[in-house]
Amino acid sequence: MSGPVVVGVDGSAASLAAVETAAREAARRGAGLRLVHAVGWPPLPLRPGRSAWNPDAAGLRERVDGILTEAEQRARRIAPHVRTVTDSVLGEPVMVLEIVSRHAPLLVVGSRGLSRLGSLLLGSTAAHLAAHARRPLLVVRGRPDPSGPVLLAVDGSPDGRPAVEFAFAAAQARAVGVVAQHVWNTATERVYDGPADPPFMTYDEDRLRDEEQRVLAEALSGLGAAYPDVAVERRLVRGRVSGTLVEASATAQLVVTGAHAHGGLTGLLLGSVGQTLLHHAHCPVAVIRSTGE
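The chain above was modelled as a monomer; its predicted structure follows.
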């Protein structure tokens, strides 16, 4: 995509952190930056006799201009050479950001925001966009100025390939390595020989571990040649998927996951693993939807 990186702005501390992150991303990509403030309904309590559609009502124009001006100043301090534009749009934040980002290489939002003035409501906007946005989404959360490798959550599904490729490209742009983590446990559907096997059947743990190792290797196939300068640590972990990824994010600068996989027991469904990362990861989370969805 050749369009600008899009970032949602509402004036909160979280959205200003998102602006700074988006500015860095735009600089890395050689792209422009678009700061978008969505004015929801009703944006502010209105004074008696003032029209609800009057942009000057209740000082709305001044408030919006102030929010965008502060965001633009933050962006220019981080990336002074990036072309930056500001935009205020009437509509609910989720709908506005989903529409304006359709031709963007990346959409960036904070993990939480204000409760009015077209806000990025706590968790709701980020979670909805993670599940439905058509473009890669970066949710800025966790510790400030995180360092470390890019942590890739590998689930081995065909839908997960775009997330794998995004992680390697992000690592190359940051000049860091990739930790490709595949989590397995005895609840995986690969334990059983067939769909009719009951959950209390015995299984060969060594065979299962070997199978999960193969899944991890296949998920990364071809990426070493495409990104020869990116060091890769393959990490096969037995445990709970969500908990082990959150723990690993404490030493990463970015977590990359698919929006969802094939829907089986091994899939990184946004409703489980993805949601946990959005709420508990120690660093920003990139959610990448399959291009076939």
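Strands lie at 5-8, 33-39, 84-90, 107-110, 137-140, 150-153, 178-184, 232-238, 254-258, 285-288.
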